[in-house]
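Table S2 (continued). Query chain:
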Amino acid sequence: MNITYQSTRGGETGVTASQAVLKGLACDGGLFMPDRIPKLDVTPEELAGQTYQETAYQVMKLFLTDYTEEELRTCIARAYDEKFDTEAIAPLTKADGCYFLELFHGSTIAFKDMALSILPHLMTTAARKNHVDREIVILTATSGDTGKAAMAGFADVPGTRIVVFYPQNGVSRIQELQMVTQKGANTHVAAIHGNFDDAQTGVKNIFADKELEKTLADRGFLLSSANSINIGRLVPQIVYYVYAYCQLLHNGEIQKGETINVTVPTGNFGNILAAYLAKQMGLPIGKLICASNENKVLYDFFATGVYDRRREFILTTSPSMDILISSNLERLIYASCGCDAETTARLMGQLKEEGRYEISQKMRDFMADFCGGFADQKQDAAAIRKLYEDTGYVIDTHTGVALAAAQAYRQETGDGAPMVIAATASPYKFAGSVLEAIEGTAPEGDAFAAADRLSRISGTPVPEAVEEVRRSPIRHTRECAVSEMEDVVKEILNL
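Corresponding output:
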């Protein structure tokens, strides 16, 4: 049976997968959710030893039901190709009793590549399927990684343009350089004078502007998103959790049916939500440890049932997690209240108007699979340093937060189930902070000097993604106030 999608706030129902991918955000500001979570129709034992591409097809076909087999397999083949520097696409590395799921082997060395490599193909296929002849304008806010990965994915894709907003002084230097050096005549990026939440809210406000939507349509443009609010971003992320479990099985690290736990460094909530959906599909996952940095709004939420963004926004060494409004949590809220769109809309309205909301005990009970954890910057650095000293394995600052949270969970609960940690970025993307964690002092020189130093002490080569930025000229210099974001879009589109 075909799966259809509906808005978490009730304004749209019966939307096909390809239509949901094209639209990105529902017309009422809600997020698209499938009318049911499908079960895997192949066993992990059957998938063990299969390629990443085959696993991707077996998972994604269950959600993207109006794509033909040929369409979906073509999208997968084009996405997961030689742009990844390892044949496994998402290999597992065992270190210090944990399994690190390395999601940073794509062209921009962060986990966003896993979904944003395929989204342009899903989107352009969806446009053809739905006879859309307008130019697709991808509008995206980024806390550092989505922007580069989205621009790399959509660069020079016919019939598309992409506009990315990122927080000035709120990303690492390598992250910023990756964006401002991006090639492609259809790529545009602007630094906003604000934080990621400001950028994300600004993008949502542009989507909600019905007058602008009409103007865009009249001029031949269709607005969509590459953020994880797009179901076309979320579904591909489910794949790597299924693949990880099957790798463990294939390698004899776990037995048939054995339960694993998963820890995910979490900002916008999409990555850990994908793990939750994998569990709902039948994957034997026990606890989902939601790891936060000092912006621990999610940790407090799982501890109290109160989501409260009214707090200081802290810039940390794990900037992709410096987020106080976790958009994808809305999908879990929707599921936890029995897919009650009215309740979801009310709570999201409270968050917008009052800055907080509180869920019921029944909804909290529904979320029992989740466990909040957090690490401050000292704990993050200590986890990175100890792992390096004990094993020689180097992780980035976001993965360090996850490792600290995973270790704390194990100590507090005694739960010894195999632990998979989502390693969301290459340490080279945050080389200065990683070096400071390992050596105790800030490295001298610029971001590239730090990368070279990290290469020497880790015995690993500087990734091509960093070398490319080192030799590339800056192409994008636009910046704006938050209030000017819509004007920037209009200027880019000559409206």
